[in-house]
Amino acid sequence: MKTQIEAIKGVIFDLDGTLVSSELNFSLIKAQVGCPAEQDLLDYIEQLPSPYMREEAMNIVHQHELLDAQSAKLLPGVLEAVKALQAKNIPMAIVTRNFDKAATLKLQHNPLPIEMVLTRTEAPAKPDPSALLMIARQWSMPVDNVIYVGDYLYDIQAAHNANMRACLYAPDVTPGYAEQADFVIYAFDELVSLIDNYAEKVRVC
Ligand SMILES: O=C(O)COP(=O)(O)O
């Protein structure tokens, strides 16, 4: 049986560790809010028993995120790749687990020609696919035509939860979960070649 591979017509990016550098120390943040190392930080905060405890914990997270925003820098090759995709009229968006103020600051300090940005303030955090699906809907684009590019397991999971293809950006070490991604890139110029290979025509294998 032939499998049809849909063309890539839209690209959604993760923010931290993909477009910009991040020094968020999750071990430290978890220790400060009392979250067990193996538990997801946001899930842990959400299940805290009182609004006061949730607010206190979230304030700590916000402080770390705002501090991180001061030092975030565009990663190598990002601007060139984004401009190349813009020149090809590929719609682009950003989905991040950051809260809105931190994401806004990071992008103010590191401007990119990408207007649509969804944070955990606007949509449930990854690996929930809601933000990715909202963007595909906004673009009126089938999810098969959209790729999500990120550097972490949650990014792969969110893409697959949205029935999109997942592209892992792994510039340093290739993690074990890389095998779950549909594509792995080690540098940003590879993304442009990837889109070129998949943008023009629907390939059948
Ligand atoms: O703040 C985080 O948890 C990570 O942010 P990201 O989704 O942009 O990688």
Automatic annotation (TrEMBL):
<dbReference type="GO" id="GO:0008967">
    <property type="term" value="F:phosphoglycolate phosphatase activity"/>
</dbReference>
<protein>
    <submittedName>
        <fullName>Phosphoglycolate phosphatase</fullName>
        <ecNumber>3.1.3.18</ecNumber>
    </submittedName>
</protein>
<dbReference type="Pfam" id="PF13419">
    <property type="entry name" value="HAD_2"/>
</dbReference>
<dbReference type="InterPro" id="IPR023214">
    <property type="entry name" value="HAD_sf"/>
</dbReference>
<dbReference type="InterPro" id="IPR006439">
    <property type="entry name" value="HAD-SF_hydro_IA"/>
</dbReference>
<keyword id="KW-0378">Hydrolase</keyword>
<dbReference type="InterPro" id="IPR036412">
    <property type="entry name" value="HAD-like_sf"/>
</dbReference>
<dbReference type="InterPro" id="IPR041492">
    <property type="entry name" value="HAD_2"/>
</dbReference>
